[in-house]
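Postdoc handover notes: sequence design on the structure in folder B. Input tokens:
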């Protein structure tokens, strides 16, 4: 991929004024001596609509967040990979690239190490590097901090070793890192969002072909805000529930004689549901209607009718709550309180079982909506939620 030098809010550093200007560069110098060869970044994401569709070969509409993971990196002459994170325990993880294998690295370092492993395993000529990583993507909030980490390292290695891989290829390798190296059976949406999004737009993604297009998502013109409400309930995709849902969808597709649930058109849904065992009915209903909601959301965005997304978001939440059953008390409460306080629509975003809720809100009502959600959480005895304003941001890129 062609690295891009950007000047957005992540670029709050400057090689010319010396490493003291940015803790990322200062720490790199303290750890490894000298300056990095470059700095790369990859963002977290929210998904506007299209949840649990990616591993069904379906459609999604994520956007990148301004929050990102930055990697200061320098190539080494030997095979050693050295990893350090500002969010880690202070230690440097050291491992030869040739020694990377699933299970060889644990903890946070398995995500960046996995990205390097996936590149090497795919036959790309990569060697050692010194990496220092710092992230502003909240962890455990369903905002794809792990994809940001994998993708930032993949794009840094792509630059350091002159690979020039296309974005979807980098996303596939980052997904492989997460699936095979970190042991999380995720789909491709988070990595495609982190690598391929552009500022000001949502990414209309076909998870089967990885075809994607950028659909303008202009909040400001419509005086809208997209609030991200972190319920602070942590989910863990590796805990088995995600894998079970995925297996259920795959079984349903097999029973229907289809390659994937994406191949079931919404107008044949009723007939298909009658042919399935009861426990698979709600799963299939969610996936097929969710693909239809993505298509409808794109139609509305292309028509410039951003406020019309609202009801689709709330309908998507109901489907996750009632059919897919991956909502929880906190996410339901955040959606209800946001909509009652004037949000045009709201839904849980990401893998589920907690994480974050997005609320599309008239900008003037954003303080009322955040206040209502905070008050509702306090009354229910939940921890205070985290709150962010999301703007559709640039995907993975070279910063310096
Ligand atoms: C997680 C996974 C994605 C996707 C979403 C649900 O974020 O990493 O691949 O399946 O859940 O839409």
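Designed sequence:
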């Amino acid at each position: 991929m062609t690295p891009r030098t950007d000047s957005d809010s992540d670029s709050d550093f400057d090689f010319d004024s010396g490493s003291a200007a940015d803790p990322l560069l200062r720490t790199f110098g303290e750890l490894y001596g000298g300056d990095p060869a470059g700095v790369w970044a990859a963002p977290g994401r929210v998904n506007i609509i299209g949840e649990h569709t990616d591993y069904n070969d379906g459609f999604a509409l994520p956007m990148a967040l301004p929050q990102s993971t930055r990697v200061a990196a320098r190539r080494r002459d030997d095979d050693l990979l050295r990893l350090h994170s500002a969010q880690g325990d202070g230690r440097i993880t050291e491992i030869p690239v040739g020694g990377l294998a699933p299970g060889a690295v644990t903890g946070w370092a398995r995500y960046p190490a996995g990205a390097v492993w996936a590149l090497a395993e795919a036959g790309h000529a990569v060697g050692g590097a010194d990496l220092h990583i710092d992230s502003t993507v909240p962890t455990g909030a369903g905002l794809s901090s792990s994809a940001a980490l994998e993708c930032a390292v993949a794009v840094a290695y792509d630059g350091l070793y002159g690979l020039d891989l296309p974005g979807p290829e980098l996303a596939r390798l980052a997904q492989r890192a997460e699936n095979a190296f970190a042991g999380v059976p995720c789909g491709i949406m988070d990595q495609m969002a982190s690598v391929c999004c552009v500022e000001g737009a949502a990414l209309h993604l076909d998870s089967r072909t990885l075809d994607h297009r950028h659909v303008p998502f202009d909040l400001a013109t419509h005086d809208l805000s997209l609030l991200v409400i972190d319920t602070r309930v942590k989910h863990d995709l590796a805990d088995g529930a995600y894998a079970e849902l995925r297996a259920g969808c795959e079984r349903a597709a097999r029973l229907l004689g289809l390659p994937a649930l994406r191949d079931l058109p919404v107008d044949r849904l009723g007939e298909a549901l009658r042919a399935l065992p009861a426990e698979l009915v709600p799963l299939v209903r969610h996936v097929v209607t969710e693909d239809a909601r993505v298509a409808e959301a794109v139609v509305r965005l292309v028509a410039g009718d951003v406020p019309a997304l609202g009801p689709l978001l709330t309908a998507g939440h109901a489907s996750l709550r009632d059919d897919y059953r991956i909502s929880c008390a906190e996410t339901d409460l955040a959606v209800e309180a946001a909509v009652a306080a004037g949000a045009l629509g709201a839904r849980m975003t990401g893998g589920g079982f907690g994480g974050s809720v997005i609320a599309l809100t008239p900008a003037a009502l954003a303080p009322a909506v955040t206040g209502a959600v905070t008050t509702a959480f306090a009354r229910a005895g939940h921890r205070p939620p985290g709150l962010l304003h999301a703007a559709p941001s640039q995907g993975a890129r070279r910063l310096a």
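Context for whoever picks this up: Residues 47, 51-52, 54-55, 186-187, 189-190, 350-351 surround alpha-D-galactopyranose (CB under 6 Å). Don't rerun without checking with the PI first.
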